[in-house]
Amino acid sequence: xxxxxxxxxxxxxxxxxxxxxxxxxxxxxxxxxxxxxxxxxxxxxxxxxxxxxxxxxxxxxxxxxxxxxxxxxxxxxxxxxxxxxxxxxxxxxxxxxxxxxxxxxxxxxxxxxxxxxxxxxxxxxxxxxxxxxxxxxxxxxxxxxxx
Length: 147
Prior knowledge:
By secondary structure, the protein is mainly beta. Helices cover 7% and strands 46% of the residues.
């Protein structure tokens, strides 16, 4: 993967189940809304909490796997690219949207457990399709050190 300067890692909780849909060409796309809370003490010494909500888009296999595996309330780790776009709403005003185009989505294991089930015939499935990294590590043997 080539270095890009707009990569982000965002950790938060899903506000709803992922919404899976398909483009006219048949590509799967899932939209997730992730909320992250930041707690801090203000200048007056009072505890404050600020919540950031971001929409996350994922494509193809990643979209289908996320929709099947993740649910409202799950804590997730999202790695992807920041995308800023605009559109004109019904009142003719320009609305700016900041979202993440995900390359990876995973459940956080800090306060939960997960069981991984590999999919067969995976094609990479990130936002840009195959990342060009076709390397797959060999399966572990019984002689391998477990750490």
